[in-house]
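User: We ran a pulldown and think these components assemble together. Before we commit to crystallization trials, I'd like a predicted model of the whole complex to look at. Sequences follow.
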Amino acid sequence: MLREPAIEPRSEPRQEPRQEILRTAARLFQQRGYDATSMNDVAAALKLSKGGLYHHFESKDEILFHIMSHAMEITEERVINVVRRIDASSVAGAEERLRMLIRLHIQVVLSPEDREVTVMLHENHPLPPALRRKIIGRKKDYLHFVENLVADVQRKRSSQSLVTPRAAALALVGMINWIYQWYKPDGPLTGEALVVQYTEIFFRGAVG
Amino acid sequence: MLREPAIEPRSEPRQEPRQEILRTAARLFQQRGYDATSMNDVAAALKLSKGGLYHHFESKDEILFHIMSHAMEITEERVINVVRRIDASSVAGAEERLRMLIRLHIQVVLSPEDREVTVMLHENHPLPPALRRKIIGRKKDYLHFVENLVADVQRKRSSQSLVTPRAAALALVGMINWIYQWYKPDGPLTGEALVVQYTEIFFRGAVG
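Assistant: Here's a predicted model for the assembly, 416 residues in total across the polymer chains.
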């Protein structure tokens, strides 16, 4: 869906041109701000003509929408699809799903190669309502997936926790997504320490 | 600091004109996006001349900086100053400080009248480095305050928790600040339910 084969020779990047456009645009949006970056800036950074860029995307809003969609695809592939492959029929299996989700979601947030795309999920620029609804829908699907994992672990453990799966899922997604605000690769908290400590906080605090 | 007395009659709002400018600008920034809002738009919404607006703020970046500073002042006054008044010499006192911080920080995030200002703390627009550093400094001060509260409770409880005060503080600030992304006043999770459940997650999970 994100690939488009090059049909004839052209000066545009030949491999996965749409993906390359999305990544470059995401980087510019973060460096300069979304609105301060023009379609001309994006085209220039890619050494594309303006026409070449518009051949792929009709507007900057369309680019932002596809960056956000791509970020959700990355999350779905790297987190949900992997977690789903774990057999959750036992208590230990259900717990392992939740542990793996915490680990993989943190890895996506910290991943240097995906960060320029995934961080755009937090861009506050108001998209046109139809596009906005699609992104919100995918974010909600992710939240429901987390909520169901929590509910499953609580049920299998016969947990007496006061914390509802919904509040737990919102807290977890919040503490993980917030990492982009402060994380420095060379800071004192390593990615692995974060995984261990956030897992501890969440399992003790929310699963009961 | 945010007040400026009206010296001569003018068409500008007479009471706390700077605050009114900041609130109106914050609302416009959220509705239309920061970069898509011009100084002309801000002046028009306030029924100010462009000169009248520039009399108070030299640039849009200066307005954004002062909105963010004001948001930090609100947080410091409503959270830190109240929490500091609680005697923390006993275990129960130290715990009460932390409980109160969670409650008050959530209240600031949910407050309808402050929301238009406080949500701007999450605006991704890159401020000029000197202004940016000042805001980051205040955010760090807040984080250290939380970290110290956690360390104090862990110490007084002789906690064996694996969770460091720093990771705990980052997780807490993340889960609370993230609320602005999904909270609806008429949604199923009330503010009070949020306070109770987030307090439960944090105390069980991070304090040990």
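Chain B touches chain A through 47 residues (CB under 8 Å). That may be worth checking against your pulldown data before setting up trials.

User: Thanks, that helps.
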